[in-house]
Structures are given as C-alpha cells and as structure tokens.
Amino acid sequence: MTGPGGEHRKATGLLNNTYARSVTDVQRRPLNRARVLGAALEPIDAEGLEALSMRRLGSALGVEAMSLYNHVASKDDLLGGVADLLLEMVEIPESSDDWRADVRQLCSAVRAVGTAHPQAFPLLATQSRVSLASWRPITAGYECVRRAGLAGHRAVAAVDALASYLVGFVLFEVTAAAAHSLVGGMHADRSEEHTSELQSHHDLVC
Fold it and tell me: Alpha-carbon distance 39 to 43, whole Å?
C-alpha cells in the first residue's frame, strides 16, 4: 500500500517525465527559419533584446549555435526576421466602404501586436523588412490611402508618414508603460523602506 508521500513522489515523477518528453519532442522537430524566429521571440518577450544570444537560442532549440546559421545569415538577420514575424502577426482587417474606419482598424491591429510584444516592438524601427508576408500591413495601408483618392508618390508618402507615426506612437506608449512600471516598483520599495524606518523609530520611542 502506497502512502501519501509515495503517491506525491509518483505524481511528481510522472509530471517530470511528461515534461522531459515534451521538451525532447520539441527539440526533435525539424528546424526551420520560422521555428528559429518564434523561439527567438520568447526570450525577448521575457527579458528584452539583450537576453537573446545565438548560444541561448541554440540551447532552447536543442542544437549547437552554429546550426542556426543554416536558417539565419547573422544575428542582424535574426533580429530582422523577428521584426518580420511581428508584422506577420498583424491581423489585416477586411476592406469596407469607409477607408477611415479601415485605417483605424489597421492601426489598432498594429498597436495590439506592440502591446503584446513591447520588448520586441522597437525592432520595427531599426530593422529592414525581409519577408513578403511582413509587407501585408503596408500593402493594406496603401489600399486605404488609394481609396481615399491618393495615388503614385503621394500615396507612398502618405503610407510612409502613417507608418512612421504609428510605430513612433506605439513605441512611446510601450516605453512609457515600462517606465511607469519601473518607477512604480521603485516607489513601492521606497515606501516599504520608509514604513520600516517609521516602525523602527516607533519601537525605540515606545
């Protein structure tokens, strides 16, 4: 008869074995560019751009770092690919009769990606587009301004201005949110220190 402790150890062992098999299965999956880019986004989301390294990425995928260069040409290509991945995540709204509403929906879709991946979003301001799929938001924006009556270089200029404003706005928003969170944490720490000091002073006086 197995006691409570034995049942707990058995359950823990089963969980550990399941996790180990899951990790092994993930690592055995064929490596491709899409999988590399998806894995690269994870440490960026969790810890920021500085957390991403080829060695760490290779370890997460169960391969040597050099194997990654079969799928990305360089660290810069990797970061460009992550930027592409973010744009590919943008849900392009269906066209309607109201081009203004379509522009607002498109901008909201880009903003949603930025707020979901604030640590990676700055890559859109520093990296060039690589994949064709990453141009879908730009193409959708061009279609909107074309329906607004713009064409040729005026349409291109309008989309460029819209994209620059949008990326800048979202960057400001996610940066401000991160700064507010940091300052809030600092204030909380100082408040705890101040409360502790007051308590110590009270204990001495009383």
Answer: 8
Report d(CA 200, CA 206) in Å as an integer: 10
Query: What is the predicted pLDDT for the residue at 4?
Result: 56
167-173 contact pairs (CB < 8 A, 24+):
167/110, 167/124, 167/125, 168/125, 169/111, 170/110, 170/111, 170/114, 170/115, 170/121, 171/114, 171/121, 171/122, 171/125, 173/111, 173/114, 173/115
Q: What is the mean pLDDT of each run of 10 residues along the chain (206 residues)?
A: 57 53 58 96 96 96 96 96 96 95 97 96 89 92 96 96 95 82 50 53 49
Q: How far is residue 21's CA from residue 26's CA, in Å, rounded to a whole number?
A: 9
- Among 132, 133, 156, smallest CA distance to 145 is for 156
Q: Which residue has the tokens 């991945």?
A: 85
